[in-house]
């Protein structure tokens, strides 16, 4: 493996796999000195931050989108208007993934800030929305 390939592999492990320099050094057989040099020379910390920030921003945008969809459906219900089935189906599919998105977002926040009370959409809250607002039994997704 060429030195460039090794540098690229080490960079990927640091930025995307979130591995420590010590772990990368053990796995690839590099000294801490060379890894610290590469990290500084190629701005790995900035790249790692940008990747994490982009993932966090996407999660927040997704949650905001879900809130808007729920508000529209709620407005349709209040006005006794029929909500198009594709909108409901799309919302249900997104809601299934919200706990994973929230779990990921919360894990990012825990790494960056001290522990505090969890806020937002929990799996129980999502199920409550499905039951009480959308009138959907979570065990009957296939019937939609």
Task: Write the SSE topology.
Elements lengths: L2 H13 L5 H8 L3 H10 L2 H35 L6 H28 L10 H11 L11
Helix pairs in contact: 1-2, 4-5
In short:
The chain has 144 residues and is mainly α. The chain has helices spanning 3-15, 21-28, 32-41, 44-78, 85-112, 123-133. Helix 4 (44-78) runs antiparallel to helix 5 (85-112).
Give structural notes.
- The protein is an all-alpha fold.
- The protein has two domains: 3-42; 54-143, no CATH class.
- 73% of the residues lie in helices and 0% in strands.
- The protein contains six helices and no strands.
- The model has no long low-confidence stretch (mean pLDDT 79).
Query: Structural class of the helices, strands and pairings?
Result: mainly alpha
Q: What is the first-to-last residue Cα distance?
A: 52 Å
Strand content: under 5%
Biggest beta sheet attributes: none
Radius of gyration: 22 Å
Model regions low in confidence, pLDDT < 50 over at least 5 residues: none
Share of helix, binned:
over 70%
Number of domain units: 2
Mean pLDDT: 79
| H and E order | HHHHHH
Number of helices: 6
Shape: elongated
Number of strands: 0
What would the keywords be for this entry?
2 domains, mainly alpha, 144 residues, single chain
């Amino acid at each position: 493996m060429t030195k460039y390939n090794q540098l690229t592999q080490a960079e990927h492990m640091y930025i995307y796999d979130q591995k420590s320099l010590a772990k990368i050094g053990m796995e690839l057989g590099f000294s801490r000195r060379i890894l610290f040099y590469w990290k500084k020379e190629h701005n790995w910390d900035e790249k790692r931050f940008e990747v994490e920030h982009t993932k966090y921003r996407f999660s927040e945008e997704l949650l905001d989108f879900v809130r808007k969809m729920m508000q529209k459906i709620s407005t349709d219900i209040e006005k006794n208007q029929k909500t198009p089935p594709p909108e409901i189906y799309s919302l249900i599919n997104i809601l299934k993934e919200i706990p994973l998105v929230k779990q990921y977002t919360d894990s990012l926040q825990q790494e960056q800030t001290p522990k505090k009370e969890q806020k937002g959409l929990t799996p129980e809250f999502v199920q409550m929305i499905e039951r009480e607002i959308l009138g959907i039994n979570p065990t009957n997704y296939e019937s939609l």
